[in-house]
């Protein structure tokens, strides 16, 4: 990624941690039979988000950072899909679904922005004809 400050100071990482916290609070009230099902899936999936952002921040090259950030976006899509399933099963309210999806989509947009910055700052690779 493009800065040298500690990953904990990145706004993207902080927002991801906020989403993890909200997700953990949401799933704490899930039915007992879902503790090893949807609850575990959501928690495991969303926890990868700040981890991947930190990993991308410390990646050795732009290509690695980009791949890791794209993986983080995939995690967000999986998270949103799980939220929609929870809503269909009446485990969470429409309001909670909208609120968390809005946060997830905001993070996706921020990651898109970070990816575009990486492309802009990536060194030119020599052409094969040279």
Automatic annotation (TrEMBL):
Highest taxon, organism lineage: Bacteria
Pfam families listed in its UniProt record: 23S_rRNA_IVP (PF05635)
Name the record gives this protein: Four helix bundle protein
